[in-house]
């Protein structure tokens, strides 16, 4: 049989808490959220970039939306000292990393750093292979809360699950032995099927080569698609959002609380996609329970993009306490392809806490189209071929993007115009997870998290929607007539 | 050259008993039959569920039809005691597992349990990796007769035949060393080609990810089809009956007495397929010599479904003493596809004991159609390209579903209405393997096992039949004019 | 760069003898020829079968045509004695194996036997894994000259070149250490790319699952075709002649003197193919330098089939001292497919000793057709894209099947009618390699080996021929005007 | 994240020098250039061939164009002496290898030799497996500057990155320990993904089986194309130029200074391709930063071919100090296929030092056609989906083939007619890298290196060109209005 999430798809009566034997640590009970500098800044890093990021993220309300980890990526290093200790670049980090950590902590964030399970990092700074324990101690000593651990220059130590498992487990053990809780984010690009074995070793694992800021353009350097999606000999980079989403579709069940698929940092705000494309990208990253790391330049964030990143109804999918990924129920090629030859449509659904369901109609065709989701398909995992009890019930449909923050409100946040922000009642538009967890918010039926009711799905019925080109319609279904009560309590 | 079954396809004159060097033990001379709770109950297990199952299975005549093993799946555990001994969940199994085994044995059944060749089971209870000998002793001490041994949380110990062989062999050796005969059912989902090496290690091996209750719907989480069927990098789950059947078509010869391909537990009775689909599913599982474990909720079994599961003429295919799987002679795509885009037709045949042959016309197209099986194709394994002597003979065709138990008879069994059952002469409709083995029944030409004669296949002729959508016509061929004599004795 | 045969394709001026560092032994300078009982008799073996085979093979002139090895396949064993020595089945081999070897040797043949690099043979007799040295000594003691070494029940010891190399090298070393020259014929079905590494270990290696007596019918149990041809995860069995031929097309260069690709024993004479199909099968096995083991029942050999197996002009391709395989120059799908959906045409060419060339037009379409071979393509390996000097020369075309032995002559041989044989001058129709080696026969331009001149290929010209359904036209090209002189001596 | 070149694709502002931790040595800062005898002479090697080559290469101006390494391939050996030292063939190299090295050095060249990481070389001379240190000392003692290290007869030591890494690392370490700088050129045909791990071990690695002198003809012996391109189970040989180019497209980023992809030696001058095809072949080998080894017979070099090999504007792409490969931006199949069924078009672009860009329109269709390159696509790696600043700028387009050396000038060089050469002012046509490095030449805007201005690419504009059958149009883009100033200095 398969991993727990399969079990979780059985009817509620069958579900009961299990002995969570495998977690590495208590972190990432839901997918980690935060910001990583790589997609926007690459090697151009210094202390001020990080501190500035914490300030903007706070100001924009994103910290309170849950984006908690500030992750410094490659190029921070100055090599090792004579005793082998990693040294920060003193030009870029004149006060040292411990000081950086302190400042980040004081802003209410957690601090993430980067190394590689190789002799060098990808940008050819000192890597941690064969220095795992010494480096873990260094990171812990600096107050680091998170480690992104890359895969470059691994000296041929890949090609089978066990060799990769052992290489990554060394750092896992080293981090654990520090005594400091450090979220361990594996970045071996999905090589050697980490979803088969990383649950006992790490809090998350990348599943693909690096994302780039394109919705669906194929690139020769990210060659795996089709049958190669799940058995990729060359992870590469320049993977589009749709490429990565299709990869995860085959092993959505492998992410479980404390151990998640990581589809790479978000491109929202970097300019390469349309508003609809970014909404699709963000919705699906949230729905499949990917780690959610923003990858943008916060100084250039537009109001439109902010109102994507802070949509509480979408983030609530990601932080749902049930921890069950949405699944791709169907996928069809369509004829209206774009200039890259791409065109497809998909339907996704998933189970949420409290008996709610997620549904998405994703249109990756080249024009707007009407799409349908049938009840038998939506409740597919609760019973194949229309056998689920759920498909015979009536559900209220909530549109998860209907309450998107208005542009003037988002702009006020970005402008830091507190007068205007107050007059617009900005705080009413976003969910403050620092005060109330998503779990509690959902339990108390916070309307920010539920979306706006827009209709009813009848027994054996269908949801129909016009979906824009490269866009998505995303819904939460709640049992009709049962309002704010949790189904578990019925 | 290839495994013994190839040899077995040579003409009768060439066949003689061989030294059975490899068997692990004396169990599963024919494929094991029984019931497993997972497909219907998942983790919702307790003592009463198992006892209730034994009662129903007895009452419905299924125990005497051969369903002998009651297999408890995942979630029965409460972890390990301080000395490392596995503990049953005392709420669910208040009398302990030894008592459960006793009660099951007293009902005339054998008792199967579950663990995983990993640090945890799939539902994250304690796994047996590195505890093989201790756990085998525990199971033997409880009176366990069967172990399903899963593959979750294996710490990267997969990816090549040898690493998997060694992991599973540890439990094989441990079970053997207990001195108790325990049927060893490997469940590593077909990873690392168990059909290449498991014959010396286990009594059966799963060949795919978990089945689900769908005839042929593709699911992204069971991605391997086409060329990936026999070299699957991601076993997954939610594999349809047709998906699994097509997988086994490539290595039907690898199952041999005491060591069988396992296509996963049956979905018959769970509601996701039509009557024709369930008949196809059951017929083919039997014909390819899969382990036959029912996976239904016995309290909700319909008369129609019972009359599938208890068809003696089909079970006799599975329990045939010759132990030769049917083979897929041809497969063609057809144009009338269903809404999942699936549509194909297949012809299977196989050699049975006593010189009989099995033939099936399987219609997985989207509508009823006339299908043909030519003698040259039916007797294909006895001589390629029409060279077999068999293709020049005349055969009586027996329809294996023609004597299906009438619905009122099956209903009487389910209702436990003994008066009605007696008046309907229920026992005349099913074969009592507790009294007479299938081998003896076949040897004595028990008509329940042979099906109903419906025509003749002439030399170089053809069988033609109308086959319903997603349905099957299944036949036993017996040399014409030779009635009830065994061909071996001619 | 690649293996020597590549070098051999350069122009004659570049070619000179190299240091043959790798050969295992002095055997199989050209591909071994002989007879193996498996295809026709399977396990039904005994001393008389072998002795009878030697008598027929002698009588039919096939021994003198080069079929030298009498190979006993599986099922000869009675297990091991108390000290671990392999024992022959005393019922079937009442005089012991040493006596069998003696009798075979006295008939002028060499004796081959069989074991498996596993704990059991495929028919489950004792295998030689972990008994390599003891068994090699036993075989040498019996006077064995040849070992076919199979792959069943290998305990998971496959899946990477090194693990398989080491398993097979053990027997290689063991055979060498006996001091007796024993031809070592690896039979691991092409698993783990033996053509990459077996040249230093063995005299030949099987490249596929078992052949069956069909020209081109696909079978689910031999699934690898297309891209899977050269990277086959499941060797299987029931591989058609065309399936195996297409497999070898990708690594024809890997067979070199003393170390050959083995396409499995011939099916000629077993009845499953037409005369044209058998001619194609035999021609191509010879041309790609496969081991040539007959696999027929000699008591049922027809005159037509005998005149295929004894065609000296075809055998001379196989035994050519240059040892360069023909290569597939092109392959095209055609529309006139047969009922198995198969249809393709191919052109092959290859370099022979003395500057001659081989050309074949192979029609695997479903009807007769005219086919062409252009000079630029024929001399492709001597210079890509028409750059070869050879393509500008004029060549005499010799048809290699034009001098096929007449049916009445072949029948006289089969009948053993010495009077008639003498009157028909039978011996003039076949080449006696016992008296004169193929190398010497070719050097002296023995006309039996050259085929019949049928035309001229002009500079930059084309050969055109009508090729029957599933048939072949096979030619030897010799530089025009240079008659019987060797081109090397020009 | 991925390797450094990814970083290098970020905007200039992000780029700064990194700690080059991995280089094996200081050699091959840009791809090595030279000549190798194999493609033209195979095993027909001797001292005079090499010395003659140095003389011709000098005379033709190719040494000063950068072709510095004279590489002797296989077949030079006479085995090992009694103490295991490799011996040169004394007939072919009567003065010994040290003398050969001396003479080559005196001509201003460096000397390369050959061995194999196997027990034999491909032509079956003594290989260096298990003799790494002894042989490295021998080579260093002879004054060798370069080692091509092949893959034949490796005794099954392949099939996973680590086993191959370790085999090749042994020679890497051995060469390093000699103290002599020896460029280490791995030739394992791309097996086991050398681009993933060889950067710390070698200066270059072959990525495919051997090239042959064909632009795009498929050969069964080089089977990997399509999805198999980047995961090739059978490297083979007879790989066409387009086959190899398509292979590298997936990992162009993996070549970095001191460690390069090697697409195999050039076929320019060997006669199998048209002038357009050779221009395409040479342009792309240069643009993707392949090692550039001529593989021709210098005595038969035509003026046309010389003017390809010595084009300074193309070589400057290869020797660009930035060291960033061009990337394939798009690839489309076209309908006008040739007789091999091949037809496709491609656009490539890449970043060069000084802010310049490379663009190529490659027409592998069967007829001349107009092709377009859009600014958004050209500057793709500087910003996906048209987000790059570069796409909004104006650029001068320089045609890199417009200044190709006139045929009479090239003929004068070949003829060694110094009077004519002087009158034609030959030296003005080629770049003398012995005097001025390409880096310095580019820094000083040497017009030989820049090509001829032929137009302007406007903001968001397009380059349009008529491209001949199997031909290429190749351009350097330079920011308009900024003439000869380096963009980095703006």
Defining traits:
homotetramer, 490 residues, alpha/beta, TIM Barrel, Immunoglobulin-like, 2 domains, eight-stranded parallel sheet, six-stranded antiparallel sheet, 27% helix, 19% strand, disordered C terminus, Alpha-galactosidase (chains A, B, C, D), EC 3.2.1.22 (chains A, B, C, D), glycoprotein (chains A, B, C, D)
Overview of the structural elements:
- The structure is a homotetramer of 490-residue chains.
- Chain A is an alpha/beta fold and 490 residues long.
- Chain A folds into two domains: 25-318, Aldolase class I (TIM Barrel, Alpha-Beta Barrel); 327-403 and 451-489, Immunoglobulin-like, CATH 2.60.40.1180.
- Chain A has 17 helices and 18 strands.
- Chain A has helices at residues 4-8, 38-41, 47-59, 62-65, 96-106, 132-142, 161-177, 194-197, 241-248, 275-287, 303-309, 312-318, 375-378, 407-415, 418-423, 438-443, 447-450, and strands at residues 33-36, 69-71, 77-80, 86-88, 110-116, 146-150, 183-186, 204-206, 260-262, 292-294, 327-333, 344-351, 357-363, 369-374, 395-399, 452-457, 462-467, 471-479.
- In chain A, strand 7, helix 8 (194-197) and strand 8 (204-206) form a beta-alpha-beta unit.
- The longest helix of chain A is centred in the middle third of the chain and has 17 residues, at 161-177.
- Chain A starts with a helix and ends in an 11-residue tail after the last strand.
Provide the structure class of chain A.
Answer: alpha/beta
Helix content of chain A: 25-40%
Number of helices of chain A: 17
What is the molecular shape of chain A?
globular
CATH fold field value of the largest domain in chain A: TIM Barrel
Strand content of chain A: 15-25%
Radius of gyration of chain A: 22 Å
């Amino acid at each position: 049989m398969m991993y727990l999430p399969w079990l979780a798809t059985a009817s509620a009566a069958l579900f009961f808490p299990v002995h969570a034997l495998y977690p590495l640590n208590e972190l990432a009970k839901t997918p980690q959220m935060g910001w990583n500098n790589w997609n926007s800044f690459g090697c151009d890093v210094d202390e001020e970039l990080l501190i500035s990021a914490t300030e903007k993220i706070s100001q924009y309300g994103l910290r309170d939306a849950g984006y908690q980890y500030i992750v410094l990526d490659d190029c921070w290093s100055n090599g090792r000292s004579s005793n082998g200790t990693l040294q920060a670049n003193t030009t870029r980090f004149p006060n040292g990393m411990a000081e950086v950590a302190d400042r980040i902590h004081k802003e209410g964030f957690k601090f993430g750093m980067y190394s590689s399970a190789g002799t060098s990092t990808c940008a050819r700074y000192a890597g941690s292979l064969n220095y795992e324990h010494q480096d873990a101690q260094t990171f812990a000593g600096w107050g680091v809360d998170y480690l992104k651990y890359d895969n470059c220059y691994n000296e041929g130590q890949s090609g089978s699950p066990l060799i990769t498992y052992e290489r990554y487990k060394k750092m896992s053990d080293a981090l654990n032995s520090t005594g400091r809780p450090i979220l361990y984010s594996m970045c071996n690009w999905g090589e050697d099927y980490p979803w088969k074995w990383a649950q006992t070793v790490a809090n998350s694992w990348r599943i693909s080569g690096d994302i780039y800021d394109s919705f669906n353009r194929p690139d020769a350097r990210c060659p795996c698609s089709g049958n190669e999606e799940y058995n990729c000999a060359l992870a590469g980079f320049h993977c589009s959002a749709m490429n990565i989403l299709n990869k995860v579709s085959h092993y959505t069940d492998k992410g479980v609380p404390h151990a998640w698929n990581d589809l790479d940092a978000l491109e929202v705000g970097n300019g390469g996609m349309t508003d609809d494309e970014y909404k699709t990208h963000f919705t699906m990253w949230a729905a499949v329970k990917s780690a959610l790391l923003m990858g943008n330049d916060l100084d250039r964030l537009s109001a439109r993009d902010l109102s994507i990143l802070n949509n509480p109804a979408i983030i609530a999918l990601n932080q749902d306490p049930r921890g069950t990924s949405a699944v791709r129920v169907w996928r069809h090629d369509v004829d209206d392809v774009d200039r890259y030859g791409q065109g497809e449509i998909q339907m996704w659904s998933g189970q949420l806490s409290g008996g709610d369901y997620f549904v998405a109609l994703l249109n990756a065709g080249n024009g707007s189209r009407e799409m349908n989701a049938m009840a038998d398909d939506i409740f597919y995992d609760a019973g194949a071929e229309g056998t689920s009890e759920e498909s015979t019930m009536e559900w209220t449909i909530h549109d998860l993007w209907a309450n998107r923050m208005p542009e003037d409100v988002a702009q006020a946040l970005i402008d830091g115009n507190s007068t205007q922000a107050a007059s617009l009642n900005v705080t009413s538009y976003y969910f403050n997870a620092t005060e109330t967890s998503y779990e509690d918010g959902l339990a108390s039926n916070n309307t920010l998290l539920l979306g706006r009711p827009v209709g009813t799905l009848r027994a054996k019925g269908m949801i129909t929607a016009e979906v824009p080109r490269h866009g998505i319609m995303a819904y939460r279904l709640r049992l009709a007539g049962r309002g704010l009560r949790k189904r578990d309590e019925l």
